[in-house]
Amino acid sequence: MSLTIGAHVDQTDPLAEAAARGTTLVQFFLGDPQGYKGPEIRYAGGADGLRADAEAAGVDLYVHAPYVINVATTNNRIRIPSRKLLQQHVDAAASIGAKGLIVHGGHVGKGDDPEVGFDNWRKAVEATDLTLPLLLENTAGGDNAMARYLDRIAKVWDAIGSASQADRVGFCLDTCHAHAGGNKLDTVVDDVLAITGRIDLVHCNDSRDAFDSGADRHANFGAGEIDADLLAGVVRAADAPVVCETPGGADEHRADFAWLRDRL
Ligand SMILES: [Zn+2]
């Protein structure tokens, strides 16, 4: 199979990071993944320079939104800044010519009605000017999560479907999150496709934790709890570009790419 396999890297010089890994696909954060401070572009040539240089180098860029974004929550003091931060990241990612912005499904509070969260997702998609594809990612855990189990993903997808920009929303399937979140990897691609009709990106990660543990700790391939054939099977079935968010730098990522390629 000739899938593009890349990695999550530092944003300062993502093209050098891509070259060091022998790949044409990289993902990175634009700023602090744990903070509400807006995005920043650290590439020496700025946003325009990065867009032009990536295009010239034939490198596809993906941006991962900060983890703190939770557009589903019933808490105004989180939901409102989350929407603002989401728009800022959409704009910044579009300015560098990124192929997509990946955002986690988020969650509602422990005692909250999840229906409110599904509708908050619809409102967030309505309220955001999606100048590039927004890729909703499944999560491993979180109390009352929106995108851990398939029934919830289906409800979020249903809600988003009635928004005017629904066609700008895609799906990012994370293998570590699916496994630790309690979704069987031998059927998860078909299960997700039955709901969304699309998988735009795969986050391929092994998991340090057991099936359905709810923990989110990525591992290098073969070093975690996920069966090698199942992991490769997800990548094969999804047939989408792959980002390895595995530990280490260029050497570890090259080893992970080779491990995966051997099994495709
Ligand atoms: Zn991921």
Write up this protein.
Helix content is 41%, strand content 15%. The chain is built from 9 helices and 10 strands. It has helices spanning 14-21, 46-57, 76-95, 114-127, 150-161, 175-181, 188-196, 228-238, 250-263; strands spanning 5-8, 25-29, 60-64, 100-104, 134-137, 169-174, 201-204, 206-207, 218-219, 242-244. The protein has an 8-stranded parallel barrel, surrounded by 6 helices. The protein has a two-stranded antiparallel ribbon with strand order 8-9. α4 (114-127) crosses α5 (150-161). The longest helix is centred in the first third of the chain and has 20 residues, at 76-95. The chain binds zinc ion. Zinc ion binds at residues 137, 174, 203, 245. Residues 137, 174, 203, 245 line the site of zinc ion (ZN).
